[in-house]
Amino acid sequence: MRTFLLLGAAALPFAQGIRVVQSNDDGWSEGNLRTFFDVLNSAGHEVVLSGPAENQSGTGSSDAPPTTVDSDGCIHASCPGGSPPTGANVTDPRLNYVNSFPVTSIKFGIDVVAPKLWNGAKPELALTGPNVGGNVAIQVPFSGTVGAAVYAVKTAQIPAIAFSGKTGDPTAWNASTTLHSRVYADLALNVTTTIINSGKPYLPANTFLNVNFPAVSDTECNNLSEFKYIFTRINIGLLSARDADWCGSTRLPWETDVVNRDGCFVTISPGDANDKTTVNDAAVQQQIITKLKPILSCL
Ligand SMILES: *[C@@H]1O[C@H](CO)[C@@H](O)[C@H](O)[C@H]1NC(C)=O
Ligand SMILES: *[C@@H]1O[C@H](CO)[C@@H](O)[C@H](O)[C@H]1NC(C)=O
Ligand SMILES: *[C@@H]1O[C@H](CO)[C@@H](O)[C@H](O)[C@H]1NC(C)=O
Ligand SMILES: *[C@@H]1O[C@H](CO)[C@@H](O)[C@H](O)[C@H]1NC(C)=O
Ligand SMILES: *[C@@H]1O[C@H](CO)[C@@H](O)[C@H](O)[C@H]1NC(C)=O
């Protein structure tokens, strides 16, 4: 009987479950973030979500002590006016707001919420977004979604992936789930699972991934099997050293060009956590290509 139960447990798709911290810059209750939270939980991961109480889009790496929530309350009425500087959902302690910047929010998740819920254990992976709107090229340094990922990598030494999706407006957690939120959460899970399956360390030191999803609609790019994952650069790289030898070239395509192409292309760029530009070291790029190989395509 016992053997039977153990075999049953081993057959569940939860074997790869890890500890994840999530954040974003659109607010802790935004639909893309909450849908990804649900999808990660369904995949068997243990997740702590700690996001800003308000829209903090474009605040980069700003960090400041959280303050009492103003009289308007948290975004989308997700907490009452005058709420304390930090707080959790009344019935689900994994869902947390921080009335400050994205960096402050993810830091609170890593330093305060995660150890409390996980007996002192630290997250193994940080996932930010999917951001509402793309974060490519010159937008990257200003993005709070990227800022939070870079904080995780550089300061907390937790590997991180920043996800952004072109389609959609910020949506409340209690509105019906949108098509773009569902598609982006499933695509983000695919990239996340591929990285987890590649083994630890999940990413080279001081490196994050900047992932951008294309437009999604009722007629195009809504079925996971339609998407192709392309390894790209954040910056165009005209003058930089050769990139890894990949897809018959030593210059990776630029994420902006790929995102703007017709077709369902997901771009994955290796980001340098020191300056939020492309990792230019071809050997480090190659390590990441090896990890992502099960999903990567050439243009
Ligand atoms: C969030 O802030 C950004 C930058 O200020 C702005 O462009 C965007 O429209 C805001 N979103 C909402 C839902 O207010
Ligand atoms: C809090 O969690 C409950 C239970 O999961 C959920 O029904 C509710 O919508 C959540 N509210 C917020 C603001 O997260
Ligand atoms: C979501 O919850 C807030 C706060 O309780 C409420 O004001 C709002 O009407 C709800 N929205 C929907 C679509 O249910
Ligand atoms: C998605 O695409 C695959 C391959 O083209 C197809 O077999 C499948 O039926 C599609 N799924 C949906 C929900 O359209
Ligand atoms: C990712 O998506 C592709 C295409 O739909 C699929 O073949 C692959 O198995 C997925 N990988 C993971 C790890 O989910």
TrEMBL record:
Domain Survival protein SurE-like phosphatase/nucleotidase: from-to ranges: 22-223
Pfam families noted in UniProt: SurE (PF01975)
Gene3D superfamilies for the chain: Survival protein SurE-like phosphatase/nucleotidase
Entries under InterPro entries matching the protein: SurE (IPR030048), SurE-like_Pase/nucleotidase (IPR002828), SurE-like_sf (IPR036523)
SUPFAM superfamilies for this protein: SurE-like
Record keywords, A-Z: Hydrolase, Metal-binding, Signal
Location of region: Disordered: 50-72
Signal peptide per UniProt: 1-17
Superkingdom, natural source: Eukaryota
Hydrolase among keywords: yes
Transmembrane segments: none
Composition bias, Polar residues: 53-70
Gene Ontology MF terms: metal ion binding; nucleotidase activity
Family: Belongs to the SurE nucleotidase family.
Protein name: Sure-like protein
